[in-house]
Amino acid sequence: MSSVTIYHNPRCGTSRNTLAMIRNSGIEPEVIEYLQTPPDRATLTALITALGLPVREVVRAKEALFTELGLNAPGTTDAQLIDAMLAHPILINRPIVITPLGTRLCRPSEQVLDILPAPQRGAFSKEDGEVVVDAQGRRAKA
Hints:
By secondary structure, the chain is of the alpha+beta class. Helices cover 30% and strands 15% of the residues. It is built from five helices and six strands. It has helices at 13-24, 41-51, 55-58, 64-68, 78-87, and strands at residues 5-8, 30-33, 96-99, 102-105, 124-125, 131-133. The strands form two sheets. The protein has a four-stranded mixed beta sheet with strand order 2-1-3-4, sandwiched between helices. A two-stranded antiparallel sheet has the order 5-6. The longest helix is centred in the first third of the chain and has 12 residues, at 13-24. The chain is elongated.
């Protein structure tokens, strides 16, 4: 079993870039396509706890369904947000990466570099051409 897990949506560029950076470090992670295999309540709440973020930051507020369900209403509770993410996994912000060094919501994707247990093995550019890692495997300066 891999020591790195990514909750991944292959249709998301940020998620694809994050997965590619994990692989650029020589690690083949456990890939959980959470839209096909959504987490259960215990797993989702454990992920949120490990992230150390407010529940509201783990919800994908840019998704139209967020507004359609009225989740932007004042007074929406954490429990209601978690219920919505369980019922509609598309509302879970992504990608979430778990490594021995921590759990991170990797937005932007290069945040994964801070928790990878192995260094980058070479240059890496995002799908849009932005250089993230130079030829020596070092993080590029912003």
